[in-house]
């Protein structure tokens, strides 16, 4: 799907994209995985409202090189890891090239190939570079936007089991509505990468 302008991409389009992506079978991954190794986690605090982006009191987490170097099938490793921890993959794509966020669920992005520069927190927010094997956990309400990427860049999009994302643009008129949705989100019971210990169970505990 080619996106020519943010205004041409609606919530309906996004839902249609999710439905189409969910029809793509996830390839089998017969090789058993070891216990998740220690992963360095970078935190990024994005708590202030920026224009129409609410952001969140929870820190954004970047799991650096979550895939062991011994595994060549990054897609398969991440798919199985996320599913095992209750965050099944729902789509494969790039990150939208306009500022957006989700008000009803946290979003997990696992980089399966390539690399990209992403802006976080809204139009005045910081930028980070992510590469194959990195994982980003974006709290509900936190703005994100792809600024540039290699031709082969792809992420796996995942959410806590049973949830699917809405889509909000940087629109101040929708800010109060989105903040009400965010306030109702329950804390996930497992971290998508580290499982039942560490990760959000420590860093989001308070």
TrEMBL record:
Swiss-Prot/TrEMBL keywords: Signal
Record has Signal as a keyword: yes
InterPro entries named in the record: Cupin_2 (IPR013096), RmlC-like_jellyroll (IPR014710), RmlC_Cupin_sf (IPR011051), YjiB-like (IPR047121)
Domain (Cupin type-2) ranges: 99-146
Matching SUPFAM superfamilies: RmlC-like cupins
Signal peptide positions (record): 1-32
Descriptive protein name: Cupin domain-containing protein
Species lineage: Bacteria, Pseudomonadati, Pseudomonadota, Gammaproteobacteria, Enterobacterales
